[in-house]
């Protein structure tokens, strides 16, 4: 790619918005791995695993922009400004994000900020945690028998109560909730109030693809207790729908049908 040059003749760096996947370095794309190993500056989230950061070349600058929940907006402006400032100073930047940069990753906002400042930006997709976690837990998000619609929802959104989730969950549908652990009680109550059966299977996948990964299962009505009793911590995903049932239960159903 040809270098971008400012009107006054200085080279402008490129910002690469790179998905780091759910944690296991083996799940990086080849392009992400190549960029991580070659760049001089990595600006990363708290979700990027230490194993992946340790792939950076010796002497590379690693800048953490892990965000506190309560300071989201301010912090995001500061991150945008940092990316633009570095690129305008001539530095290529790898902006490394957990999962995929465009799935609840604020990658869209960062790309806009770069474009507005005349900074070239490229996007390298990553395996979103929804896909990494479901693969690791062997939960097929779609299944010919039980799910032909999948929805990704942010569980910490303002206005959660006003959303109508009735169309997103239920028979034939899988709902994957990001950032939902802190609001698990509200989410379960809301879904049941919108008509979802209390016994709908739920799986909570914590630290997916990392050594400390846990997969917890139960019915929707038991989600608040499950999260509290098992002390589920972020990062965790909540998968709701028939596909989230324990594999053994599915096997039992098949065995029962076969004997009938
Ligand atoms: N861009 C990311 C999502 C960022 S939002 C992606 O594509 O995955 C942060 C949320 O992602 C967390 O609150 C959690 O719900 C989910 N998450 C990210 N990494 C995870 C992991 N390793 N295990 C479980 N959930 C994860």
From TrEMBL:
It is an enzyme of class 2 (transferase). CDD domains: SUMT. It comes from the Bacteria. PROSITE patterns: SUMT_1 (PS00839). Its EC number is 2.1.1.107. Keywords: Methyltransferase, Porphyrin biosynthesis, S-adenosyl-L-methionine, Transferase. Belongs to the precorrin methyltransferase family. This is uroporphyrinogen-III C-methyltransferase. The gene is cobA.
């Amino acid at each position: 790619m040809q270098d971008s040059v400012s009107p006054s003749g200085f080279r402008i760096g490129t910002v690469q918005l790179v998905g780091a996947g759910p944690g296991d370095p083996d799940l990086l794309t080849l392009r992400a791995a190549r960029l991580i190993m070659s760049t001089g500056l990595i600006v990363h989230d708290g979700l990027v695993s230490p194993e992946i950061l340790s792939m950076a070349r010796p002497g590379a600058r690693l800048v953490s922009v892990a965000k506190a929940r309560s300071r989201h907006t301010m912090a995001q402006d500061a991150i945008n400004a940092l990316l633009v400032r570095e690129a305008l100073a001539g530095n290529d930047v790898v902006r490394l994000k957990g999962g995929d940069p465009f799935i609840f990753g604020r990658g869209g906002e960062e790309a806009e900020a770069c474009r507005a400042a005349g900074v070239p930006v490229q996007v390298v997709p990553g395996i979103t945690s929804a896909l990494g976690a479901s693969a690791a837990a062997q939960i097929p998000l779609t299944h010919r028998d039980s799910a032909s619609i999948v929805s990704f929802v942010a569980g910490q959104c303002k206005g959660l109560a006003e959303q109508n989730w009735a169309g997103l969950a239920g028979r034939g549908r899988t709902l994957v909730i990001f950032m939902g652990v802190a609001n698990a009680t509200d989410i379960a109550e809301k879904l049941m109030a919108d008509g979802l059966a209390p016994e709908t299977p739920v799986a909570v996948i914590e630290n997916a693809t990392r050594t400390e990964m846990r997969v917890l299962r139960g019915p929707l009505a038991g989600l608040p207790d499950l999260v509290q009793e098992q002390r589920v911590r972020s990062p965790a995903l909540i998968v709701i729908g028939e596909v989230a049932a324990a594999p053994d239960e599915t096997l039992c159903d098949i065995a029962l049908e076969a004997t009938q």
